[in-house]
Amino acid sequence: MRKADGPNELLYSLIELRPSDARRRFRKSIFEDYPLRGPLGQCACAYCGRWDEKLTIDHIVPKSKGGPHFSRFNLVPSCKACNISKSAERVFEWWRPQRFWSERREEILLSWVHHNSFVSAHTDQQDIEAFAEERDFYIPPSKEEAPISGGFCYTEWQAA
Hints:
Elements lengths: L9 H7 L2 H15 L2 E2 L17 E5 L15 E5 H7 L4 H5 L7 H13 L2 H4 L3 H11 L12 E2 L4 H6 L1
Parallel strand pairs: 1-4
Antiparallel strand pairs: 2-3
C-alpha cells in the first residue's frame, strides 16, 4: 500500500485524520476547487453567483432522488437561498426558469460534473476536449490560470 506524503493528499486525510476531520477537509476542497469565483477570489454560488455570504454544499442530484452523497461530481457550493429553494427538485427543472440562471454558469456546472466524474478519470484528455468542442461545452482553466470570475455583483442581483 502506498504511504501518503503529507496532509494535502486525500490518502493522508483518510488514514491519518479522524473521520470528522476528513469530511471537513473534503467539503473544504469543494469550495477551494469550484471554478466560479467572486471579485476577490472567494468561492461563489454555482447557481446564482452570489459570493458575499456563507455558502453551503448542495447535491446536484438530490439524495432523495438517488444522488450519491460523497461523490465530488454531485456536490457544488450553493448559497443558502438557492439550496433551500432547490430543495429536492431536479437541478435543471428548478434552475433554468430562475431569473439568475445563465448559460455560462450552467456550462461551468456541467464541466465540474464531467471533470470530477469517473468518465473524466478514465478518458484521454484529447477525447474530452473533442467531446466538449463538439457540444460547445466549457472546459475550466487549469489551476495555473486565473479563476473564473462570477461576473456577478450582489447589488445587481438584489435590484433584478
